């Protein structure tokens, strides 16, 4: 297994992958050779990303980032986690696009620029101000938006942490637009927040639920230990210094997040569509979300095509783990490619954007 830990200078240069034809990026890729997930040829097939504000449910304005290759094999809608934003997933976005997938990332309501950009956000938007029901509707909207934008029948959902639990819950009990649901070719969830690794005391959860009925948007501390994210210290330092990461939520936002995950694990799993493929990933040493809950969810759902990969020694953010992140994205993109519709053909990107079943057994990979 290989890994690459870039210097700060290299990080800055690789960030320019989003710019058309920068010579310095080509030089980095040539120097990395086989150690780079993104080849020179695949980079040449990548267009610059586009940042755009899109009005969604309840007239909420969402900050979005889309990117597409010259020829689109499929499209992926990505849903990020709690108290973070789409800008933390450049590596994931570039890896997906390099393999032929158009992508739609968005800052969820209550987070990122959707909540913090005072000049562009919706009236009433605030950090942590959201409910699980609203966020499920947002997933529905973004799927429709991606399908219309990229004109593809190969649509995938991919979520991490809170976002991972949201995409799983959506597939069980989300909006009853079966046309969109049946168009989904597959779902990936990494470290889904079905349950906390160490659950808060029951009395605290009960008190929080009662309080959110009185003061729903009262801010409450919601700290995540940066050292628990991954084995790369620079990721934790960047997380703590990130102006779009505020370690707080609201009473209602936190309450519906925790209840939504627990209800998905306890009862909603019964409604998972049998024909909808799913691939779950979780680190065995995750101190944020429960690996056992993910394992149980995999075992409980009746999907005909389901796959679980437990990453031995992995922390919470597997996409940032130095010894596994490249392999993780290789596995995910390979799984997406294996689940493309056999009837659909590769399509050209819109002007504005420049079947083998996975095994059911749980697989283990070592860091």
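^ structure tokens above, recovered residues below v
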């Amino acid at each position: 297994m290989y890994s690459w830990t870039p210097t700060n200078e290299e990080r800055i240069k690789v960030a320019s992958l989003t710019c058309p034809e920068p010579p310095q990026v080509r030089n980095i890729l040539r120097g990395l050779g086989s150690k780079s997930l993104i080849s020179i040829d695949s980079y040449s097939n990548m267009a610059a990303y586009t940042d755009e504000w899109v009005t969604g449910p309840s007239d909420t304005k969402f900050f979005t980032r889309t990117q597409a290759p010259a020829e689109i094999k499929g499209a992926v809608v990505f849903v990020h986690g709690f108290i973070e934003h789409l800008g933390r997933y450049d590596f994931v976005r570039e890896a997906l696009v390099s393999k032929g997938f158009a992508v739609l990332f968005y800052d969820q309501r209550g987070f990122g620029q959707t909540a913090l950009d005072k000049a562009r956000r919706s009236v009433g938007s605030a950090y942590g101000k959201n409910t699980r029901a609203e966020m499920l509707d947002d997933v529905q909207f973004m799927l429709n938006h991606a399908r219309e934008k990229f004109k593809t029948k190969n649509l995938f959902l991919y979520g991490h942490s809170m976002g991972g639990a949201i995409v799983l819950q959506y597939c069980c009990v989300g909006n009853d637009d079966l046309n969109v649901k049946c168009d989904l070719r597959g779902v990936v969830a990494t470290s889904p927040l079905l349950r906390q690794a160490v659950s808060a005391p029951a009395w605290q959860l009960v008190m929080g639920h009662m309080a959110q009925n009185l003061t729903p948007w009262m801010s409450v501390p919601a700290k995540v230990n940066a050292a628990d994210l991954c084995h790369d210290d620079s990721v934790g330092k960047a997380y703590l210094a990130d102006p779009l990461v505020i370690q707080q939520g609201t009473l209602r936002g936190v309450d519906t997040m925790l209840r939504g995950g627990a209800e998905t694990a306890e009862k909603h799993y019964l409604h998972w569509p049998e024909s909808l493929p799913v691939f779950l990933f979780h680190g065995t040493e995750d101190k944020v979300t429960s690996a056992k809950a993910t394992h149980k969810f995999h075992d409980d759902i009746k999907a005909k095509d389901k796959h679980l990969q437990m990453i031995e020694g992995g922390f919470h953010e597997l996409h940032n783990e130095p010894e596994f992140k490249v392999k993780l994205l290789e596995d995910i993109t390979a799984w997406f490619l294996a689940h493309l519709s056999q009837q659909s053909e590769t399509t050209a990107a819109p002007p504005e954007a420049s079947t083998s079943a996975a095994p059911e057994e749980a697989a283990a990979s070592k860091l």
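The radius of gyration is 19 Å.
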